[in-house]
Design brief:
Blueprint lengths: L1 H45 L4 H46 L31 H5 L5 H13 L5 H11 L3 H14 L5 H10 L8 H20 L5 H31 L2 H4 L2 H9 L5 H8 L8 H16 L4 H11 L1 H41 L8 E2 L5 E6 L12 E5 L4 E6 L5 H16 L8 E4 L3 E5 L12 H16 L4 E6 L7 H17 L3 E5 L15 E11 L2 E10 L7 H7 L6
Parallel strand pairs: 1-5, 4-8, 4-9, 6-7, 7-8
Antiparallel strand pairs: 2-3, 2-5, 9-10
Helix pairs in contact: 1-2, 2-6, 4-15, 5-15, 6-11, 7-15, 8-9, 8-15, 9-14, 11-13, 13-15, 14-15
Length: 590
């Protein structure tokens, strides 16, 4: 871990040095621009009597000033890039030290009645999603949340292979994060996708010829005016004619201008991200497949996006008053630049949607890779189709290694562990440890364990239930619905089941009998899982069913203080602590 911290601190320092150096260069450019403008204006005044020389100086000044503005903007973007890189490393240093509050916790991605998300606190403050989430694009975060919720076991090998490769690609990660975070738009991926796919061309096919023809005629009109063959009145009339032609489509062009700067203009910033992928060599099948989607024989995705950037820059010049009047009056500027944009959108809209999906997926995969890089002591699980779950020193990934107590676990196929134990002894933490180990395996992540051999399997849980006043639904009925949902799901697919204190909403005798019947049903279906309970009566089912094994977490009272070792042991818990805690907290007396 110290090695990672040292690396992050070094890269942060380098990024901050770049920011400082570029800041000095930008200040110099500002001064130089003022000098160029001042000298240019002075020379124009001095040579005002010689019109041709005055015009030459004016044009030269304008060109040089425009170049300086472009160069200034480029350096500002470069500075923003390094600021984001420095912030990224600063946040990672915080994360390694246990503070990941800077990351979005994914609260908005909660799905009602999901197989496990609510029970294991997948989203929310200090959740596992917040711990992993380092995405830089809105679409990347949504893709990551979708992966978390997918409960998909078919991608384990490809995700794990990609994770192993990406965690070593420091340069790619740094560059992707920097460019993505200075350019990501607030518009949601769904809006971008919908707009691109629904765009309809509105300019007729002859627009290009009309624009070129009108421009050639305008050059002739300007020549005749400069030669004195026509008066200013005719020249003004020609400008009005050009503006009138533009007026035919002005409403639709203005609408496109508003939409394109909210939606499509964000796409042009992704050219550098696409280029990063194009320039990178990948070994894993998943990453190579992503790259193949954006590299074609005729052109690359970044080249096509660069075309869009140039088209948008030209189109946006319409917002300049001089271009709006003279550009449209003489050259039908709006018509020509809109037609070029329209042609690009018709030709490339669908494939751009696919390219954006590539960026979102890579963003999510890089986030997973950053997590695994930050946990060098974790180990990748070994997929074992013949077993179920066998782990050595398995721990909860959100608990610091210095204080986390780990446990060995061996759960055979078609078997159940019944876990009893005192309050706060570690039962719920153990259930979430197993649940997160399954989730992390399915995401291709390394797990907190010296060794984990695991069968690919989906996760389903019932650890919390709540009543619903809005639906007039009791706590007990909500729990029954959840158990019915579990039975329906495991009847169609391979799930690992995690249950915590089932049938809490009924009396103890009814609870024991109902719980036993439910366990028998699960065993008959060949299911596998863990059940935590305070009901010691349920543990007697071990004598009836060979597939059930009892384990417990203990608590001891030493010198009138409660002590936990958080170790899972064979058998049934004998020591409970509710009475002791009531007395210790002066809630009841002896």
């Amino acid at each position: 871990m110290e090695k990672i911290l040292t690396h992050y601190k070094e890269r942060k320092s380098i990024a901050e040095q770049h920011v400082k150096m570029l800041g000095a260069r930008i200040n110099t450019l500002v001064v130089f621009r003022v000098l160029v403008f001042s000298i240019g204006v002075t020379l124009i005044i001095l040579f005002f009597a010689k019109a041709w020389l005055s015009v030459l100086v004016g044009v030269t000044t304008a060109v040089l000033f425009g170049f300086l503005i472009k160069y200034h903007l480029r350096k500002k973007e470069e500075q923003r890039f390094w600021k984001e890189v420095a912030l990224f490393y600063d946040n990672e240093i915080k994360g390694v030290n246990g503070d990941w509050s800077f990351a979005n916790n994914g609260e908005d991605y909660h799905v009602p009645d999901h197989e496990f998300a609510y029970d294991i606190d997948l989203f929310g403050e200090r959740s596992f999603f917040q711990r992993v989430n380092r995405t830089s694009l809105n679409g990347g975060e949504r893709f990551l949340a979708k992966l978390f919720l997918s409960n998909d076991t078919s991608q384990i090998d490809s995700l794990q292979e990609a994770n192993k490769e990406l965690r070593e690609k420091n340069s790619l990660t740094e560059s992707f994060v920097g460019y993505a975070r200075i350019n990501d738009a607030e518009v949601s991926p769904e809006v971008v996708r919908s707009w691109l796919l629904s765009f309809k061309a509105f300019l007729p096919s002859y627009s290009s010829f009309l624009g070129i023809g009108f421009s050639l005629l305008s050059i002739g009109v300007l020549f005749m005016f400069s030669a004195g063959w026509i008066s200013g009145l005719y020249l003004s009339g020609w400008i009005v004619l050009g503006l009138g032609v533009i007026g035919i489509w002005l409403k639709k062009i203005t609408k496109l201008n508003g939409e394109i700067n909210k939606v499509v203009s964000s796409i042009k910033s992704y050219g550098k991200l696409l280029y990063l992928i194009e320039a990178e060599e990948f070994r894993s099948e998943r990453l190579s497949s992503l790259k193949s989607k954006i590299v074609h024989s005729n052109s690359t995705a970044s080249e096509v996006i660069d075309q869009l950037s140039r088209n948008i820059d030209l189109f946006n010049n319409r917002n300049n008053l001089i271009v709006a009047m003279l550009g449209n009056g003489f050259f039908l500027w709006d018509l020509q630049t809109t037609f070029r944009l329209q042609k690009w959108l018709v030709r490339h809209a669908e494939e751009v949607v696919d390219w954006l999906d590539v960026l979102y997926e890579l963003d999510a995969l890089l986030s997973l890779a950053i997590y695994s890089k930050n946990h060098p002591g974790f180990n990748y699980p070994v997929i074992d189709h013949n077993g179920n779950i066998y782990g050595k020193s398995l721990g909860h990934p959100l608990i610091k290694r210095a204080v986390c107590v780990t446990n060995d676990v061996d759960i055979k196929p078609a078997s159940f562990l019944i876990i009893t134990g005192a309050n706060m002894a570690g039962k719920s933490t153990f259930l979430r440890t197993i649940s997160l180990a399954i989730l992390m395996t399915n995401l291709g992540l390394p797990v907190y364990a010296d060794e984990l051999r695991i069968k690919p399997q989906k996760l389903i849980t019932s650890m919390r239930s709540s009543d619903s006043l809005l639906e007039d639904e009791s706590y007990f009925f909500a729990e029954l619905k959840r158990l019915k949902f579990i039975i329906e799901q495991i009847d169609t697919s391979n799930y690992f089941i995690v249950l915590d204190e089932i049938l809490k909403g009924t009396n103890s005798k009814d609870k024991e009998e109902g719980s036993k019947k439910f366990v028998r049903r699960l065993v008959e279906m060949g299911a596998t899982g863990i059940i935590a309970t305070h009901d010691l009566g349920l543990c007697t089912i071990e004598q009836e069913l060979s597939q059930v094994n009892n384990y417990y977490f203990d608590a001891e009272i030493i010198n009138d203080e409660l002590h936990f070792d958080y170790r899972m042991k064979n058998g049934v818990c004998k020591n409970m602590n509710a009475s002791f805690l009531l007395r210790k907290m002066n809630i009841v007396s002896d």
